[in-house]
From TrEMBL, chains A, B:
Coiled coil: none annotated. This is Response regulator transcription factor. GO terms for biological process: phosphorelay signal transduction system; regulation of DNA-templated transcription. It holds the Pfam family Response_reg. GO terms for molecular function: DNA binding. The keyword ATP-binding does not apply. PANTHER family: TWO-COMPONENT RESPONSE REGULATOR (PTHR43214:SF43). It comes from the Bacteria. The modification 4-aspartylphosphate is found at D54. The lineage of its organism: Bacteria, Pseudomonadati, Pseudomonadota, Alphaproteobacteria, Hyphomicrobiales. SMART domains: HTH_LUXR, REC. It comes from Rhizobium sophorae. Keywords: DNA-binding, Phosphoprotein.
Length: 240, 240
DNA sequence: CGCCGTCTTGCGTAAACCCGCAGCTTGTTG
DNA sequence: CAACAAGCTGCGGGTTTACGCAAGACGGCG
C-alpha cells in the first residue's frame, strides 16, 4: 500500500509521515508533495489511491487538487487534514466529493489517536470519517435550520465577487427582480440590519457590502472560497 | 534570560522551543502559551522581555496580543513568526510597533539558520530583523509607488466593513463628496474597472463590492484585519 | 508674493440598489 | 381537485452610488 501526503508545512508533513507509518503497518511507501500542483502530478504518476491532503496551501489549495484527482479517479480515498472548520471549506469539500467515495475530514487539533483511527478507517475500511465539529456544520448546512440554501449561498458568492444585480441575473438566468429577492432573503438571514438595537438612523450599513463582511466574519466565506469563485467567474466571462 | 513563545500549533511550538534553546544558550527558561490571551497574561506575570509570537491564532491573534503587551512595556522585544506576508499583516504590525522598539518578522518558511540568526539579533543585539520578502511590502507600502496611502487604506477598510458613504463621512469627519472622491481614488488604484479588455457593457461590476474582493485577493485585506476593523467599528458605534 | 498641485466641498445627474405590492407558475398535501 | 406555500417576475418609487464640473483652502517653491 502506498500513501501520498500533500502538505505545505514541513513540520506537519513529517508528523503526518510518522503518523501514517505508525497507523498503517501495511503501508510500504509514503510519498510527499509540498503543494497542490505537485500533489496532482504525483497522484497521477503513482495512481495513488490513498491520499492525505491539507486544505489551504499557498500554491494550489487542497480542494482544487482533490477535485482534479477525483475527476480522474473517483475511487481515490482522501483524508483532508485542516486547521480550520470554516463553513466555506466544509461546503467546498462536500461539493466535490464523488458519490460513494470514502473520504475524511480531520482537524489538525485532533489527537494522535484520532488521526490514526481516521487513517485506518478510511484507507482500510473505506469508511467516511468526519470530525464531529465539522459534522455539525454539515448538518446545519444541509438541513435548512439556520443554514443557508444553495441559492442563498450562490448569491452571496456573486455579490462577494462584486457583480451587479444585472450581471448576476444574466449569469444565473434570472430576472433582475428575482436576484433582488434572493438578496433580501440573504440580508435577512445574515441579519444585516443595523448593529443590534442601534436606532440612530445615521449609522446605516450598505447592505450589500455588509453582507459580504458578515459572511466573512462568520467563516461562511474565506479566502480560498473567494479564489475559487473568482476563477469560475473568469471562466464564465471567457465563455461570453 | 527568559523567552516566551506564543503559538497555536503544538508542532510549531515545540520546534520553536528547540530553536530557542539552540540559538540562545544564555536563555535559561522558556515558557509557552497557546493563544493570544494566554500569551498576554504570561507576558504580564513574567514581565517577559523576549517574545516569539505567531500571528493568526484562533483565540486572539498575534497583533492584538502584541499591541497590549507593547502598551504595557514598550521595550519588549517581539519576533513575529508567521506563515504569510500578506500586506494586511505587515501593515497591521507596523502600525503597532512602538518607536525604537526592537522587533522582527520572519516567515515560517525561512530556514532554521535564518530563524536562529533572527533570534540572536533581536534578543541579544536589539536589532530589527525583517524578512526580505516582508521588507519589500513595507517599502512599497510606505513609498507611494504603487502602494496605498493611509487614507486610501482607511476608506478601503470602511467600505469593507459595509459602511455607507454617509456613515464614513461621519466617522472620518469628511463631507460626503470627499468620501466619494477617495473612493474613486481607491477604485483607480485597485483597477476595478471591468475585467481586462472585456468591452461588453453587461459584464459590469459593482465597484464598491468589487474593490473589497480585489483587495482581498491581493491580500491587502485578510480575515484578521477585518476582525480588528470590525472591533474598532463597534467601539466607535458605542461612543455614539 | 504669485503659481501650482493636492485635497476638500457643493451641485447635479444618471444609474444602481432596496423593497413593497401584486399577479403567475409550480410542487405539495389533504 | 382545491388549497396552500414557495419561488419568479413586472411595476413603481425612494435612496444611495458613481462621477463630471467647478469653486475654495492649504502648503510648498521659485
Amino acid at each position: 500500500m502506498k500513501v501520498l501526503i500533500v502538505e505545505d508545512d514541513p513540520l506537519h508533513r513529517s508528523y503526518l509521515h510518522e503518523a501514517v507509518n505508525a497507523a498503517l503497518p501495511e503501508c510500504d511507501t509514503v510519498i510527499e508533495a509540498e503543494n497542490g500542483t505537485a500533489g496532482e502530478k504525483l497522484a497521477r504518476d503513482h495512481k495513488s489511491a490513498h491520499i492525505v491532503m491539507d486544505l489551504q496551501m499557498a500554491n494550489r489549495n487542497g480542494i482544487e487538487a482533490a477535485r482534479t484527482i477525483w475527476k480522474e479517479r473517483p475511487e481515490t480515498r482522501i483524508l483532508f487534514w485542516s486547521n480550520y472548520s470554516d463553513e466555506a471549506y466544509v461546503r467546498g469539500v462536500s461539493r466535490i466529493v464523488p458519490d460513494g467515495a470514502a473520504y475524511g475530514y480531520v482537524l489538525k487539533s485532533a489527537s494522535d489517536e484520532r488521526l490514526k483511527l481516521a487513517l485506518r478507517s478510511i484507507f482500510i475500511e473505506s469508511q467516511c470519517v468526519i470530525d464531529r465539529e465539522v459534522r455539525g456544520l454539515q448538518q446545519k448546512s444541509l438541513g435548512q435550520t439556520n443554514g443557508f440554501t444553495d441559492s442563498e449561498y450562490e448569491i452571496l458568492v456573486d455579490i462577494a465577487l462584486g457583480l451587479t444585480d444585472r450581471a448576476i441575473a444574466k449569469r444565473r438566468s434570472l430576472s433582475l427582480r428575482s436576484v433582488q429577492n434572493r438578496l433580501q432573503q440573504l440580508y435577512d438571514k445574515l441579519d444585516v440590519y443595523q448593529s443590534a438595537g442601534d436606532d440612530h438612523e445615521d449609522g446605516r450599513f450598505n447592505l450589500r457590502a455588509r453582507a459580504v463582511t458578515v459572511a466573512f466574519l462568520r467563516k461562511l466565506l474565506n479566502y480560498s472560497a473567494l479564489e475559487r469563485a473568482e476563477a469560475e467567474l473568469q471562466e464564465w466571462l471567457e465563455g461570453k
